[in-house]
Amino acid sequence: MKILNSNDKNFNEEFDKLVNRSNLDMQNVMSIVTNIINDIKNRGDEALSEQIAKFDRWEVKDNLAISTDEMKKAYENISDELKNALQIACDRIKKYHEKQLEKTWLSFEENGSILGQKVTPVDRAGLYIPGGKAAYPSSLLMNALPAIVAGVKDIVVCTPAVEGKVNELLLAAMHLLGIKEAYKVGGASAVAAMAYGTKTIKKVDVITGPGNIFVATAKKLVFGDVNIDMIAGPSEIGVIADDSANPRNIAIDLLSQAEHDELASSFLVTFNDQFANSVKDEIYAILPTLSREKIARASIDNKSAIIVAKDMNECVELMNALAVEHLEIATDNAFDYLPRIKHAGAIFLGHYTPEAIGDYLAGPNHTLPTGGSARFFSPLGVSNFMKKSSIISMNKQGIDELGEACMSLAKAEGLGAHGLSVKVRFDS
User: Fold this and answer.
1) Side-chain half-sphere of 222: how many Cα atoms within 13 Å?
2) Does the predicted model carry a pTM greater than 0.85?
3) Domains of the chain, earliest start first
């Protein structure tokens, strides 16, 4: 794992590479994904079955749908310990997202005008949940519960299957959430099917959920025909720490993201040289003990860095520039730095708040902006499953007060019918 010092002559050049880590080479897969989408649009279920055979490597011999009986059976087969853990996660995530719920509102002006905003859930939401080698029931909770809180009528889940079979814990989570519609299809094919519809899978209004570069590229291409949450890349963590932190704890936290994916990124920013080296030593001591050592080592060696800054002020400045998905502030006075953090998907404060607690059951959503996109994207939430309509109502007094100004603006823009539509009411 490389250590960069902000005093180094080539620091800016090396740091820029970290800041620009989001340059996923979508061009390499763009033509492939475009062909997949067009094939689904043109041939529907037939193309979907062929693509499942090609990419997910199993033959579709019957319905792609996952039955509620399968979900119920899987739930009954998991341990009481896992049932309890899922329920705790569900309760906490739902309670957190209920606080995000926006309401319709109206305001009444003295002239009788009424203005407001109507908040309405989308009719149909599509959730993409990773499967295959890495199945994440926690991602289902994080995507489904905001949609449930929003009041979405139809929630559709798509997840890839291994040899036609879906992860048991994921099925159990579907049962707990009351999912009624789910399909064994993954990758760009699933995104295309949800975006444009097939005979089997009806078109949705919004698609959310994480995925690989094919999924991310597909979401980018279908945006506008449907809404999406964000275009997310590989997972990442950033840690600001001083010598009050435990080097072993920080090393494990960095590895918790590295084990996700060879392309995941882990960053430590500190102003203490000795602490930086201690964390690095701990990382390489712990790596051989991990079940996903090969994946984690590739991430640590190729996509991660420890940065030694001049002081804590520069630590904060550099981390804001990185705009990471998960940000831990591991200091005794972590809350003191919170007002100065501008860009992060989720912020974990203090020595007893590992990023993993947010992944599973703290409550806030773990579907977060990556690759520096925390500068302009927010975590997945209830608002992703809702839309807003403006409300306007004028009476005679209101149009009398505002009509002249409105007609002046319409005339200035050369839109005569606009002005006339006000004038006929203004004059009446």
Assistant:
1) 35
2) yes
3) 2-23+233-362 (3.40.50.1980), 27-228 (3.40.50.1980), 394-426 (no CATH)
